[in-house]
Each structure stands twice: as C-alpha cells, then as structure tokens.
Specification:
By secondary structure, the chain is of the alpha/beta class. The chain has two domains: 5-25 and 265-366, Aspartate Aminotransferase, domain 1, CATH 3.90.1150.180; 44-260, 3-Layer(aba) Sandwich (Aspartate Aminotransferase, domain 2). The chain contains 15 helices and twelve strands. 43% of the residues are buried. The chain binds pyridoxal-5'-phosphate.
C-alpha cells in the first residue's frame, strides 16, 4: 500500500476508531470538499461579501436569521462572549479582551464547565468574560440560575456535550426562560452536535458549532442565531476575532461540507456492526457488544470488554498495544478503568475495521497466559 502524506513526512499511519478527536486531526475531509477549498485558495474575493454570503448559506441549514463563520468552535465561544459584552459597540470591541467596567459575567452550570482538550473557561476569558458557575457539579436548580443574574451579567451559556454531567442539570428551556426574563443573550455551545436546527429553534441567541467535528469540514466553526447578535459577532473582526481569522478557503470548505452533510450516511447501524462484535468475542479474553452513544446520539460503537484473568492483560495494556503498533490504532478509552474500550466505526476508512480485528487477534495470541 502506498504511503499516506503523513507517512511521507516520517509519521505513523493512524487508524482512528475513537471518533473526531483534535489530537488526531479531527476529521477527514471529502475530496469534493477539498476541491472547492483548493479553488477558493487560488482566487481572490471580496472578503466582507464572502463573510455575508457564508453567513446566509450557513443559516439556510440552521434556520437562523444569520451566521458568522469562525476558525473553530473555541473561537466561536470567545467571539460570542465578546459580542455579548460589547454588543458590537466599536469602542468596546477595541477594548476586548479587557472588559473592565463592563457587564462581563457569563453564567454557566458547574456541571457544564468542561475541558475538551482546553478548558471552556479559557475561551470564555479570551472573549473578556468572567465565568460564574451555578449549582453543584451534579445538581442545579432554576432558582440558582435566577439568583446568579445581576447587573454585571452579560450572557448565559449552555453547553451541550457528552463531556457535561448528564443528570441533575437544567434544560435548555430553563435557560431560555431565564434569559428572556432578564433580557440577556443566551449562548449555546453545541460544538460536536449534529442537529443543525434544534438549538436555534429552542430560542438561543448564538449557537456555536465546530465545522470539523460532525460536518467533516476543514478546520472551521460557526456561530448561528439572531441577526442582532451575529452583527455583534461580526464586529469582533476588528478586535479579538482578528487573532482567530479563518481563511477564505476554509470558509468555502465549510459551506461545501454542510451542503454535503445531509447526503452523508451516519455510519454503520447496530445490525451492520454485530458480525464484527462476534468476531472479536471469539478471541480469547475479549467480549464485544454494541453500545449506543451515552449522549443519546444516533451513534453505535463496538464495546470491547477485556478479561484480565483470561487474557493475562488488562484493558489498559491492550489499548496501549493497539496505539503503539506499527499502525497506531486509537480506540475510545474513557472506560479503561472498568476494563473496557470501544471502537467508533464512523471515522474508519474502508478495510480498517478488518485491520483492527486482525491486530486484536495478534494481541490475544501473543498474550502470555
Ligand atoms: C470540541 C469542542 C469545542 C471546541 O471545538 P474546536 O472547533 O476544536 O475549537 C468546544 N466545545 C465543546 C463542547 C467541544 O466538544
């Protein structure tokens, strides 16, 4: 097999069975999308017009009044926070991220204060926000959110993510009600979500998505929502957003990836994965079944349970061997402490599932027990 571009640079071939991960370069971009990127990179355009055109086209997918394309979702968080604090006023925009003297508190649930490879609080502070946590890490009540609002509050931030605490939290409707009652903008971080319309339809003012995660776009992100707030986001281009600039080519790439997104099947179904799970279960010390995503998305994965007593290796050791082989195989390793890792089929290329099963077989055969 010919070497891929990274192997040509002396790096390992990677099989990604853990999903879209920043540490592995997030997503693989379809060739039709890359063709658009390459054409966009090689020509000139009036950037302001492209920004508006991209906003209009993204909004066709989300149902929002307008949208603003960013370099990534983290930039989207910083920019939407700066939009809330400055309301787009040019003098305030120029002052960011120093928000002294302005209402700058961003209210979020403690159970939503996540780290996705960087703390979400870093992105909030980059936008001039001061983080105010509401509730306990496992439980929050609406009165606590109400009570936290004061004259220094700039916005409410709701995070939808598998990283969040999933139980005992407030709903998006709770956030919409409190935001409306106090006339405050509501920001939703939906970075890895697939549903382009739900969060806008629920009444949020600025909803943030990552382009590279669910939509297989080149590195990009976008904020979609109410025109007044998207205008305030666009105004940040003359402030903090300049340090987070997205090129014309990736802006175009995002548009083509979104057009293509609706036509893309969502990965193998439970039934299609079952024979693979059976093949793994036939190996010594390994038991595989099919699990659904814990954030209840329509994603199925193969969960492999390692029996240390049968295999002589625990799940950590098997996962490490997968990762450290000639081909680096990355699985989802959130539950290694429970003796489990899982295989996400959505990011696998043709033939790669077979390579993983073969490698597991090799590991089982070489395990000394
Ligand atoms: C990945 C992620 C981000 C950041 O997305 P980037 O596009 O990589 O900046 C923000 N919030 C959540 C919840 C994420 O999962």
């Amino acid at each position: 097999m010919s070497q891929n571009i990274y192997q040509q640079l002396g790096l390992k071939r990677v099989i990604n069975a853990c999903g879209k991960m920043t540490i592995l370069g997030v997503s693989s971009v379809a060739s039709g999308v890359m063709k658009a990127v390459s054409e966009a990179a090689g020509a000139f355009v009036e950037i302001d017009k492209l920004v508006d055109c991209a906003g209009e086209r993204v909004s066709r997918h989300t149902g929002a009044e307008d949208s603003y394309v960013t370099s990534c979702a983290s930039a989207g968080i910083a920019i939407s926070v700066a939009a809330a604090i400055t309301q787009g006023e040019p003098d305030r925009v120029a002052q960011m991220p120093d928000s002294s003297g302005l209402a700058n508190e961003i209210l979020m649930l403690r159970g939503h204060n996540v780290d996705y490879g960087a703390p979400i609080t870093s992105a909030i502070r980059l936008g001039g926000g001061r983080v105010v946590e509401v509730g306990a890490s496992n439980l929050a009540a609406r009165w606590q959110l109400e009570r936290a609002v004061n004259e220094r509050t700039a916005a409410l931030l709701f995070v939808k993510s598998h990283h969040c605490v999933q139980k005992g939290m407030l709903t998006i409707d709770d956030f919409v009600r409190v935001a409306r009652a106090h006339n405050l903008p509501l920001i939703v971080d939906a970075a890895a979500e697939e549903d382009l319309r739900h969060w806008v339809a629920s009444g949020a003012d600025m909803v943030i998505y990552s382009g590279a995660k669910a939509f297989n776009a080149p590195t990009s992100g976008f904020i979609t929502g109410k025109k007044r707030w998207i205008d305030a986001c666009k105004a940040q281009h003359h402030g903090i957003a300049r340090a987070m600039k997205i090129g014309k080519e990736n802006m175009v790439g995002l548009l083509f990836a979104l057009d293509r997104y609706h036509q893309t099947p969502q990965g193998p179904t439970e039934v299609q994965l079952r024979p693979v799970a059976e093949a793994i279960s036939a190996l010594r010390g390994m038991q595989a079944d099919i699990e659904q995503d814990d954030a209840e998305r329509a994603i199925w994965r193969i969960r492999v349970r390692i029996s240390q007593s049968e295999l002589g290796l625990d799940a950590r050791a098997v996962e490490a061997q997968l990762r450290e082989g000639d081909i680096a195989i990355y699985t989802r390793r959130y539950f290694l402490h429970e003796g489990v890792f899982s295989i996400d089929p959505r990011t696998l290329a043709e033939g790669e599932m077979e390579i993983i099963v073969a490698r597991l077989k090799e590991i089982a055969q070489h395990a000394t027990h």
